[in-house]
Specification:
The chain is α/β, with parallel strands linked by helices. It has one domain (13-267): Glycoside hydrolase/deacetylase (TIM Barrel, Alpha-Beta Barrel), CATH 3.20.20.370. It is built from 9 helices and 9 strands. It has helices at residues 20-29, 85-96, 106-111, 113-121, 141-159, 175-185, 204-214, 228-243, 251-254, and strands spanning 13-15, 62-63, 72-78, 101-104, 125-128, 189-190, 220-224, 247-248, 265-267. The strands form 3 sheets. Strands 3, 4, 5, 7 and 8 form a 5-stranded parallel β-sheet that branches. Helix 2 links the parallel strand 3 and strand 4 (101-104). Helix 2 (85-96) packs parallel to helix 8 (228-243), helix 4 crosses helix 5 and helix 7 (204-214) runs parallel beside helix 8 (228-243). It is globular, with a radius of gyration of 17 Å. Bound molecules: zinc ion. Zinc ion is lined by residues 78-79, 129, 133, 169.
Length: 268
């Protein structure tokens, strides 16, 4: 759809010294994962990514949340980077020492590479949210892969390493395409378990109330760093989550993978 040549073999992600198979095996072991101080129960196999009782809608290779005994959760921000709101959000996160996960749109990443560099430098994780934010339902295999591959390349161009996780726009991606991305790119699909519907602009207080009230152990919180009201909601939201006793981790950490900002990753 984008007129790009289709290269099925071209862009798998590998971690240097930690091949995909080894990552999968380590994460599938769950309790034996060496990357966290206490075990998470995420399990990673080609047919059931997130383990028992965590795939609420029956999709393969999909993470909605993680079962864990630890009071950890991940807050994620989609659709950026935004030239004003994202740096403001980064300031808020830095003041609190909180690391988040940003699912960026490729064409925005190309426009604002310095913001991506700041994300990496401050310990955040960058995920893939497609190139141009289409509803991928109805797209061909080639088009889906092109949307992901162009964005992976844009992130590499900005910060020297590719994303390892993807989130489809609107959460829409056929199971067949989730498996295609997992099997050919090593990228699971990350959805969410807490959605404040911040894109409807309900007001900062409501965004805070919804997130703080609904967060849980192993939660994946969805928000958008392109909305002023969302960013304005974050100080109270982050404080409220902390007061409930939860600790923030990045998406990779939540599923038992190494911290993305510390891995050696490249496209092959
Ligand atoms: Zn989005």
């Amino acid at each position: 759809m984008l007129g790009q040549p289709f290269e099925f073999q071209g862009k798998a992600i590998v971690g240097q010294g930690v091949g995909r198979r080894k990552i999968l095996a380590g994460a599938a072991a769950g309790l034996a994962t060496p990357f966290l101080s206490a075990p998470l129960t995420a399990q990673i196999t080609p047919r059931s990514f997130a383990g028992r009782n965590t795939i609420d809608r029956g999709e393969a290779a999909t993470i909605l949340h993680v079962r864990t005994a630890e009071p950890v959760l991940a807050i994620t921000f989609d659709d950026g980077p935004h030239p004003y709101h994202t740096p403001h959000l980064l300031d808020i996160l830095a003041e609190r020492g909180i690391r988040a996960t940003f699912f960026v749109i490729g064409r925005n990443a190309v426009r604002y590479p310095l913001i991506l560099q700041r994300m990496l430098a401050e310990g955040h994780e960058i995920g893939n949210h497609s190139w141009s934010h289409p509803d991928l339902h109805g797209h061909s295999d080639a088009s889906v892969l092109s949307q992901i591959d162009r964005t992976n390349q844009a992130v590499v161009d900005a910060v020297g390493r590719p994303p390892v996780l993807m989130r489809p726009p609107y959460g829409n991606l056929y199971n067949r395409h989730r498996m295609l991305l997992f099997e050919t790119r090593g990228m699971p699909t990350v959805l969410w378990s807490v959605d404040p519907l911040d894109w409807q602009h309900p007001g900062s207080a409501v965004v805070t109330q919804r997130i703080v009230g609904r967060c849980h152990r192993g939660a994946v919180i969805l928000a958008h760093d392109i909305h002023r009201s969302t960013v304005r909601a974050m100080p109270a939201t982050l404080s409220g989550i902390g007061e409930r006793g939860y600790r923030f981790v990045t998406m990779s950490e939540l599923i038992g993978w190494p911290r993305w900002d510390r891995r050696r990753l490249r496209l092959i």
